[in-house]
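ok so I'm stuck.
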Amino acid sequence: MKKDTKNDQMAFLFGVLANTLWATSFLASKYTLETWGPFSSSFFRFILASILMICLYPFIGLELKFPNKKEWAPILLVALFQFGLLYPLQLYGLEYLDTSVSAAIMLISPLFVISLAGMLLSEVITIQKVLAILIGIIGGLVLFGEHIFQNNSYTKGLLLTFSAALCLAISIVLTRKYGKKIETSHLTLWSMIIGSFLLFPFFLSEPQTKDGLVFSWSNHKQSITALFYLSIVCSAFTFYIWNKALKMTEAKNLASTMHLKTPVAIIIGVIIAKEELSTSIILGTIIIFLGVWFSQAKINNSILLKKIKGRN
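replied:
not stuck anymore, here's the structure
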């Protein structure tokens, strides 16, 4: 029992570290966009991360296996939504939004997961989950603030990031569905590799650099550093410690650590990038957090339904 408790505690710490590092990817991604377009930034990040992950496999204790015929279709679907669409859409959105707003919108993904799980996995959508989604919608409207009616670029960034949040939710549901038949680490690695190839044609269509300067270390030091940070730290290394945590404890014990990404990303954006922390961002994030927490809280739905009917 003590050993299991110790493993749970260590796994929780790994989960906290992994999600804290993932939170830094918002600002790092913003720096890569100073040099490359969204598709190029995503392609470089994941092709490098794929190579690093293959090198890490022997140290993680995993065997590198080629997908069989039945695994190709699920892997391709996950690759499309998680790497082919999610990150380019999120990066396109980052061209119009601060990292704090982007991180707050991405927090809505768990609420999208609830709806999609009901449709694709036949999971029961309780009254509690419906209320959680409504709370999340209110938080999203508060988060938008008055800018959505005044700034077309801001609205475009919001729509792109919302689309990214939806793609993340779809990839989570697909991973949950196919993860029962395909080992998660195997699914993640091959979907990342295939996702890189899906991004390649779009990478070719973008200019070598957005600023028109000759690509070099002296001209693009910050973007290159951010790219390697994203590939090594936020992708390969974080994948390693996250999968290590999942091996040490159950996934439900790590769920709460995933909510760290948004507040940490907002704090980093405000402190390092000097981004504005408006009232709408603070209130909207808090309300969305409340919705996500409410969706996972242990509440007797029959009692909740009776109270709602009683008020009506």
